[in-house]
Each structure stands twice: as C-alpha cells, then as structure tokens.
C-alpha cells in the first residue's frame, strides 16, 4: 500500500511537470521516468 | 467490512489512480506533440520573413508585408518569437518589430493590461512596452513604480530604463522610498535604470543628492560616480564631508575616483585615504 502511494505521488508530480514545463521532449525519457517511479521504491528509499 | 477488504479497496483505488495518472501523462504528451507539429506548420511560411526583419535584411519590404498580413490565430503563435527577438536587436530591426507588434494591436492590449487586476499581466504589459522602447509609453509605465506588487515595480523600472526616457528619473528615485515597511525598489535596480537613462537625468540626480531619504542620496551618489556626471561633483564632496549615513558617504567617496580631480584627495577621510589595500 505504501509503495503504491509513493508511486502515485511520483506519477502525479510527473503529470504536473509535463503539463507545466514539458521538459521531456522524447517518449523514451517519459518512459524512463515512469519506470524510475516504480524502481525508486526498491532499495533507493 | 473487514480490514482485509478495506486494504483491498484502498489498493484498488491507488492502482486505478496510478493507471489514470499514466494515461493523463500520455495524453498531455500526445496533445503537446500534435500542437507542436501544428504550430511549426503554421509558422513555417513566416519564419524566413521574421528572420529577415529581425536581421535588418528586409530591403524590399516583402517580409514586412507578409508579417503584417499574418492572421490572428497564427499571430498568437508567432508573437512569442517576435517578443523574443526584440531584446536582441537595435536600430531599424527593433523599430520594425515594434511596429509589427503595434500593427497587431499588442501595444494597445499592453496599455490596457497596465491596469489589469492580475499582477502578471501588468508586469508583462510593462515588459512589452519597455521592449518596444517607445518614449510615449514612459508616462504610461511610470505609475506602475507605485504598484502594490514588488515584482511589477521591478519590471516597470527596468522597462523605463529600456525606454530611456530621462523625464522618468525622478519617478524612479521616488520609488526608492520605503512604503509601509516595504522597499519600493531595490537600490541596484534603480541605479541601473538611471544609468541607462543617461546624462540627461542630471537635474533629477542633483535634486536626489539632497533628498531626506538616505537610499535616494546613496543611489544618486552611485549613479553620479558611475555615470561620470561631473556636474554633481560639488554636491558629492558635501555628502562625503557631512552626510550622516555611512553608505552614502562611502558612495560619495568612490564617485570622485571617476569624476573628481587632484583636489579631492584632500577631501577624503584621512584613514581611508591612507589605508593599505
């Protein structure tokens, strides 16, 4: 549950970032961020 | 309802929210990509014309004619590029870009927005009028030096500096005063603006040098020194000898380095003059 919530918070942050600043010009960068939003909870935190 | 069921429902809600977030991110990215392609397509015919105008190579006036005829929906997309070019050019290209903005009603819109309820709009309007550098706009931007929003005051001051209208100098000095515990305008911004206005601000500086406000005297002393306004030298000598504020005396002491003569060495405070640096 806690991991799911952490992933959700990151995803919402990415959505807001994409809407406001659109720094990620390539789909691949966006995919990497989405994968990282899951992986960051494994060991990193 | 058992704890297990509650956890299951909460997990499902979080999972659905995650999936929704990913979908939202993908939609935003997709829509932005499409808008970018559409925008590039609409702007493509005008890119060469804008570059020609901004580089001053529109000798036959074709670029001007093409850009003046840009339809309103395309102009909304082209406008940021025109505004981005303005601070980078001088002379005829800057005048041409300013006239282009005027022809599309941007100056009129900016003038109206100077009194908008939104601080962002007021600041943007002042910024645009500053970029166009029309001396007639100085009187319109000047009241924003007393704006309740500090950022708007800052942008307005810089716009006045860009316009370079010396009649606004006394307004800039007036904005230095602290009002209801708030600094009207940072001293270094006011100094930059006054220096940008040039030597014609000397009368305003001479009045400012005897102001009752130390911030005003200080900025005037700095500007008189950096701008080599030699007619202010006698007043600076008086400030150096008599002013109660250390900052003002320090600024007045530095100014003779640029506008003073050999006689000013004697006027320097003895310990400062002989200090080994």
Keywords:
heterodimer; A: 45 residues; mainly alpha; 2 helices; B: 277 residues; two-stranded antiparallel ribbon; 17 helices; 2 strands; 70% helix; flat; disordered C terminus
Strand order of the largest sheet of chain B: 1-2
**Cα distance spanning the termini of chain B:** 81 Å
The fraction of residues in strands of chain A falls at under 5%
Q: What oligomeric state best describes the polypeptide chains here?
A: heterodimer
Count of β-strands of chain B: 2
Strand content of chain B: under 5%
Share of helix of chain B, binned:
over 70%
Main structural class of chain B: mainly alpha
Parts with pLDDT < 50 across at least 5 consecutive residues of chain A: none
Could you tell me how far the N terminus lies from the C terminus of chain A, measured between alpha carbons in angstroms?
A: 15 Å
| Main sheet attributes: strand count, strand direction, barrel closure of chain A | none
Average pLDDT of chain B works out at 87
Main sheet record of chain B: 2 strands, antiparallel
How many helix segments of chain B? 17
Q: Over the alpha carbons, how many angstroms does the gyration radius of chain B reach? A: 27 Å
Please tell me what the overall shape of chain B is: flat
Number of DSSP helical runs of chain A: 2
Overall morphology of chain A: globular
Helicity range of the residues of chain A?
over 70%
The largest inter-chain interface, given as chain pair and residues per side, is: A-B, 16 and 15 residues
Extract low-pLDDT stretches of chain B.
273-277
């Amino acid at each position: 549950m806690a991991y799911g919530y952490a992933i959700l918070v990151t995803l919402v942050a990415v959505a807001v970032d994409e809407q406001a600043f659109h720094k990620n010009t390539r789909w691949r960068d966006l995919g990497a961020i989405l994968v990282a939003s899951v992986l960051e909870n494994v060991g990193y935190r | 309802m058992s704890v297990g069921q509650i956890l299951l429902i909460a997990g499902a809600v979080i999972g659905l929210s995650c999936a929704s977030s990913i979908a939202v991110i993908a939609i935003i990215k997709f829509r932005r990509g499409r808008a970018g392609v559409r925008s590039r397509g609409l702007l493509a015919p005008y890119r060469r014309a804008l570059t020609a105008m901004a580089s001053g190579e529109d000798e036959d006036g074709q670029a001007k004619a093409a850009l003046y005829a840009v339809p309103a929906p395309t102009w909304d997309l082209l406008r940021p590029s025109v505004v981005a070019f303005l601070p980078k050019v001088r002379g005829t290209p800057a005048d041409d870009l300013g006239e282009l903005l005027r022809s599309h009603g941007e100056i009129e819109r900016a003038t109206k927005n100077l009194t908008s309820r939104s601080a962002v709009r007021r600041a943007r309007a002042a910024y645009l009028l500053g970029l166009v550098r029309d001396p007639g706009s100085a009187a319109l931007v000047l009241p924003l030096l007393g704006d309740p929003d500090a950022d708007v005051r800052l942008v307005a001051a810089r716009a006045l500096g860009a316009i370079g209208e010396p009649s606004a100098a006394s307004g800039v000095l007036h904005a230095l005063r602290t009002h209801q515990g708030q600094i009207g305008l940072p001293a270094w911004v006011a100094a930059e603006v006054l220096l940008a206005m040039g030597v014609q601000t000397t009368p305003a500086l001479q009045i400012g040098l005897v102001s009752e406000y130390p911030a005003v005297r200080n900025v005037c002393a700095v500007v008189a020194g950096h701008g080599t306004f030699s007619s202010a030298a006698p007043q600076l000598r008086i400030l150096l000898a008599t002013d109660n504020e250390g900052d003002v005396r320090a600024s007045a002491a530095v100014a003779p380095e640029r506008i003073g003569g050999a006689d000013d060495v004697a006027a320097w405070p003895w310990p400062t003059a002989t200090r080994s640096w």
